[in-house]
Amino acid sequence: NAGVTQTPKFQVLKTGQSMTLQCAQDMNHNSMYWYRQDPGMGLRLIYYSASEGTTDKGEVPNGYNVSRLNKREFSLRLESAAPSQTSVYFCASLPGQGSWNTEAFFGQGTRLTVV
Amino acid sequence: AQSVTQLGSHVSVSEGALVLLRCNYSSSVPPYLFWYVQYPNQGLQLLLKYTSAATLVKGINGFEAEFKKSETSFHLTKPSAHMSDAAEYFCAVNESGGGADGLTFGKGTHLIIQP
């Protein structure tokens, strides 16, 4: 089925470990986003990629890096995980830059626990 | 800058009763407004959106919302609650023509349906 696929779905890391969260969409969308969801905080934007080859910081970028590998894939990397990065991470995609008046698609989320 | 305030982190209603979830926004330009629903351990699903057409917007599952510019509000309603409506609801805003920025989400309202 068409949509946004995130891997892994669950992950437990030790403090200081690194990992990459993967996101892929098969809808030929130009823009992709990474959000984190914390209880009582809603979703907050970490990084976004308006189009292939570009990335920009969102509201909470510290401790993260991203790569827009190609049009389909947008990965989020934690170089040295901290307990404060325990969260649920969502990837989203849009047809074009700022085209939120169309329908955005969200992945099912990655639940990350840092101990 | 855009922002969203959802009044009430938890709302409890009886099955069959009116559902009212409140959302107020702040935006320097006419906004796009959205309501998303999140069922336990799921991603986000779009309920409805306002994109400067009709001020009363109908969505899926019997929900609707009314855009009131004078009150900067976009409250979500459903005439008769069903047990299956129990979920987390997020209001979100994007300033039309706001470039590549993502959606700004409220902190969410957990809807509880009492039998």
Notes on the structure:
- The complex is a heterodimer of chains A (115) and B (115).
- Chain A has no helices and eleven strands.
- Chain A is mainly β.
- In chain A, the strands form two sheets. In chain A, strands 2, 4, 5, 6, 9, 10 and 11 form a seven-stranded mixed beta sheet that branches. Chain A has a four-stranded antiparallel beta sheet with strand order 1-3-8-7, with no helix packed on it.
- With 115 residues, chain B is mostly beta strands.
- Helix content of chain B is 0%, strand content 56%.
- In chain B, the strands form two sheets. In chain B, strands 2, 4, 5, 9, 10 and 11 form a six-stranded mixed beta sheet that branches.
- The radius of gyration of chain B is 14 Å and the shape is globular.
- Chain A binds chain B through residues 31, 33, 35, 40-45, 48, 50, 56, 58, 90, 92, 97-98, 100-101, 103-104, 106-109, and chain B through 4, 9, 32, 34, 42-46, 49, 51, 90, 92, 94, 96-108.
What are the key terms here?
heterodimer, A: 115 residues, mainly beta, four-stranded antiparallel sheet, 0% helix, B: 115 residues, six-stranded mixed sheet, five-stranded antiparallel sheet, 11 strands
How much helicity do the residues of chain A have? Answer: under 10%
Mind summarizing the main beta sheet of chain B? 6 strands, mixed
State the secondary-structure class of chain A: mainly beta
Strand content of chain B: over 45%
How many distinct helices of chain B? Answer: 0
Task: Let me know the number of strands of chain B.
Answer: 11
User: Mind summarizing the main beta sheet of chain A?
Assistant: 7 strands, mixed
SS element count, helices of chain A: 0
